[in-house]
């Protein structure tokens, strides 16, 4: 009997069919996988573009902020133009606001009512007070102004005993944790303490500056850090960042937060806080190997000099040293002609300032950024400090027998970044910095002889549970919105640049011409070609209707008759003007006289070469003096200038950049 052939019975055919089906399924899976990889890559590209927009605008704002230092120097040279009936104006601008008062002058008249149900601190402070404060802040309670001032005075007293660079040592059994910028994001600090433990003798920390500004809980972060420092002064290290600066706070939110939360005693808090900032150390050195500073270094960084300077003389990055010679100083302006500035002797003023060399050394430490290009060159994005390359890092580290530089100062998508052949680490601890879902936060743990370990996190809110494409759309929409507001603030300049290129008066430009004009006028190094589809309309030939970029957005005019060029100018410089006027408003009443208002505008206009007739501004000022009492609420004045997005198409789900 013959044995049946399995192939003849169809078994072979069945096996082949299965193989073909498996092969098809595998191919389909590969197609889906490749599609998903491409889709994810496109989403990541869109997210990266959005982050580039956020960062470019942030740095451009910082550049504008730093340029105020030139204006203040200009003010000193020209202050005789200010009406004589306001002799205190320049003193308020340039004299120290720090008063020679003791603790009792600040605290003596402040009473804590029985009705106060917030945390009550017990001095001298213990770890119990850290717990008490954290739990209270989790419940959104406000620490009473009396305790805030007590903490500030105690912190100042201990900081005064600290060197410019604090030294600390680790061991295999005792790691140290380094945190970067927190920027008022209290939830990030809570998460770090939850994951990593509270500060203690066995769990030391370095907080590397920029505790405040931008976020809404800067005061709470500052109080937790200062109280922890007072309990563990040898195990919690606080470095000064570029935002531990009373004039930066005026622009980026902390001053406003203090005056909102402490309406009665906010001015006292601001005065003593300004002094506390000046006593913060400017760096930490771990195991004599790792330099921890907020920004970076330059080719001329001199750590020996930085160890010796009187750091408390560094009031603000916006107050550069003014050369003095007796009661008069002669200074060359940009044209090379001499101008004379009278010296104003006020408590804690020019006689107590750093030299120009010392001041520049501190600016480099607080403001510089690493880049891949060799050498040291001006930080054109921020306008302060420098960009330093891997060769500069090696040179400075070798010169001072150091192995690594840890810095912060820059938001990174993953919360940290390693560069310069592993010798420079950036750590940034504020997650969702620009927008919900925009970036992760991180902290570092390190000890002697071991590789640094990185811990990442992201505070999760309801929006983070949405699909990735929705989160990218939201980030992207916010970024484009900011960019359009930037465009409308320079509308007149942009149109002039477009029309210079548009020789046929067609209202159209090539993509290259449009991109060149955008970058040239806005000063933002962005992928304009990729962004164009989101900002302007393009015809079938690829030419851009350059006026279409302004169709769905305009600046609201507080007074209809006022010319658009003036409105644009005030809107563009609104942050700078707000700082200047907040300084003039020394009693924080929110009101300044019309004469001060006009005088400051004329000096500002002159320095910034703003070509607007004074009569226009005078008319606007008169109309904004609503109750005709000769004074103006400048904060309300600025609120009258806001951007209206008429057709706001940015929330559509099909918003794309790539």
Automatic annotation (TrEMBL):
Keywords, ordered alphabetically: Calcium, Hydrolase, Magnesium, Manganese, Metal-binding, Protein phosphatase, Repeat
E.C. designation(s): 3.1.3.16
Any coiled-coil regions, as ranges: none
Cofactor field: Mn(2+); Mg(2+)
Reactions performed catalytically: O-phospho-L-seryl-[protein] + H2O = L-seryl-[protein] + phosphate; O-phospho-L-threonyl-[protein] + H2O = L-threonyl-[protein] + phosphate
GO biological process, one term: detection of stimulus involved in sensory perception
Any GO molecular function: iron ion binding
Matching Pfam families: EF-hand_7 (PF13499), Metallophos (PF00149), PPP5 (PF08321)
Similarity comment text for this entry: Belongs to the PPP phosphatase family.
Protein name: Serine/threonine-protein phosphatase with EF-hands
